[in-house]
Write a structure and sequence with these properties.
It is a single chain. The protein has 16 helices and 20 strands. The chain has 472 residues and is α/β, with parallel strands linked by helices. It folds into two domains: 20-122 and 345-433, 3-Layer(aba) Sandwich (Rossmann fold), CATH 3.40.50; 124-343, FAD/NAD(P)-binding domain. The chain has a six-stranded parallel sheet. It has a five-stranded parallel sheet with strand order 5-4-3-6-20, covered by helices on one side. A three-stranded antiparallel sheet has the order 13-14-15, with no helix packed on it. Helix 5 crosses helix 6, helix 9 (224-231) packs parallel to helix 11 (257-275) and helix 15 crosses helix 16. The radius of gyration is 26 Å and the shape is globular. It starts with a strand and ends with a helix.
Amino acid sequence: MIRTPMNNTIKFTVRQLCTTSYVPRVCVVGAGPAGFYAAMHIAKNIKSIKIDIIEKLPVPFGLVRYGVAPDHPEVKNCINQFTKLAKQENINFYGNITLGQDITLEKLRQHYDAILLTYGAEEDRTLSIENETARNIIAARNFVGWYNGHPRDRNLQVDLSGSRAAIIGQGNVALDVARILLSPIDQLKKTDITEIALQAISESKINELYLVGRRGPLHVAFTIKELREQLKLSNCKTIWRENDFIGVEEIVNDLQRPRKRLTELMLKSLKEQKSQACDSNEKSFRPIFFRSPNKFLVDNACVNGIELICNKLLGDKLEDQKCVATEDKEILNCSLVFRSIGYKSIKADESLVFNTSGCVRNENGRIIEDQSSEELAKLYVAGWLGTGPAGVIIHTMSNAFQVAKNICSDLQTGTRCRKDGFDGVKKYLNIPIVDWNGWEKIDEYEVNQGKKSGKPREKVTCINKMLDIATK
């Protein structure tokens, strides 16, 4: 209250009373690994707190559910931790809510003490070259979503009738795509790959797959684990080009350990291929280096090849050399191309400001604002939305924990005013909302459908069907 000097009367402010005993409310936007790991850390370190996790899709787990390859079930074990957290009384999941469409960030900020954005990077980067929109040039992100059952990609058209395909990019996602295409179908049948993808891959005629990289073998972005799996595929031979490895063996011992081990594995595979007999029935995986796509070649609006620019390295130290384009070009004939050059985040809400790296502008996870208000929730960002789309889940976990630590510190030291959390937010929503019980119904349905064909689950790919199952 304020005593005015003019008439000595008492005036009560409209602002709600603040209290030190108040239970803070935190909203996490995005139910992927970054969101769940951050929520875990906050709930562990502040016992008296309420956390609401809202998600665009009716189902949780984000990249763990839709980005991890179906033949990597061990990577999905973190779902058990997330489920345990979600069942706590002070943690709530609300699915089928899209930030910027169903609810604005400003509205959310009026009802929470802190808001953490973790909705990731859901668009792919493009090459911006001629004929890139031709048929059968597919973003690896969409192909991964298709075989993993993402509703966004359920109707993706993939023509696997040709014998040769190419992947532009040499990261882990590129190797996931290669492995799924070249794996024996009997192995894939035991996974949670969608039935439509399984059927299409079983009929695939692809027997030669190129992995195209702009730089040399010392700069590949895939990990040794991914390469080992690729090299061990049955009925598939990896074929390297010897000229791509000139000078590499001489410096391998000077490399840092992770890069050294990875390079040694490539060199070992290169030597072994000389003594391996050729089998006409084998599929082949062919990494090629020092090549950049210049334009796509088309026939009747469908891709039938790539014009590649030949690159070379300049500089004294091989590991530090720069890759530059030459005037030489070559043609790689293929009937299918996957673009796997990275992801980018979208501006889900107009109020967000992105930096030049394509991330929400932040310092150690605290979103930088030109203007702020004590009445509105503080904003934070974690995961790919704040760091850029790089690294594996363990890197996301580390970042989420650090940002959550900052949130805890701010909540425990700052003054707060009473907020009503999701009770206040739901009045703005005129959509079906899927809570954790609804997700458990979808989960049970998928597992039961999978049992019919000996799979861990058969994912529901239609959002309307998800909502029907969840709200029954």
